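S1.2 Input.
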Amino acid sequence: MLWDVGEERGVSLAVVREALVRPVGEGLADRLPNHGFAVPAVSDRRPAYEPRTTACPAPSRAPVSVPEEGAYYSGAWAEAHRVFHRPLLEGCGNPVLLDTFDRMWTASEPARRLSTHRHPDRDGAAEHRRLEEAAPARDADTAAEVLAQHLTRTAADLTGCACP
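S1.3 Output.
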C-alpha cells in the first residue's frame, strides 16, 4: 500500500503519489482511480513489445550480465540492445514514431528482462546477428521477417504461447 511505502521511507503519502507520476507516464505503472497504482501484468503490455523495427552493433558485444546487477541482464547490455534496435527507425524522419518507439521501449524493458530470465538458453545473439546481416544489405523483406520472428519469440517466451 502507498501508505506503507510512505511510512517505510519516512515521507508523506503525497510524496509517494508524486513519485509514481513518472512511471505512470512512461507506461511502467498504471493509475487506478480510487485504488492507487499497480504494476501492469506482462500480458497487459503485449503491444509494447510487439510492433517494433530494427540495426547497429549487436548487443552481443556488451556484457550480458554483471553479478552486482543481479540475475537479469546488465544495464550495459540493455542500452546496447536499445541502440541496436532504434537506428532503422531513425531514417523514417517521423518524430512521433521515434517518440513512440522510445516510450514503448522503456515500457517493455521489464518484459524483456523477464523473458531473458525465463529463457536463459535462448540464442538472442544469433537472432541479432541475422538482423545485423539483413539490415545493412537493405534486404527489407528478410529484415522484417527476422525481426517479426525475434519479437514473436520474446512474446512467446513471456506468455508461454507456442507461437512460431
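S1.4 Remarks. The CA atoms of residues 114 and 158 lie 7 Å apart.
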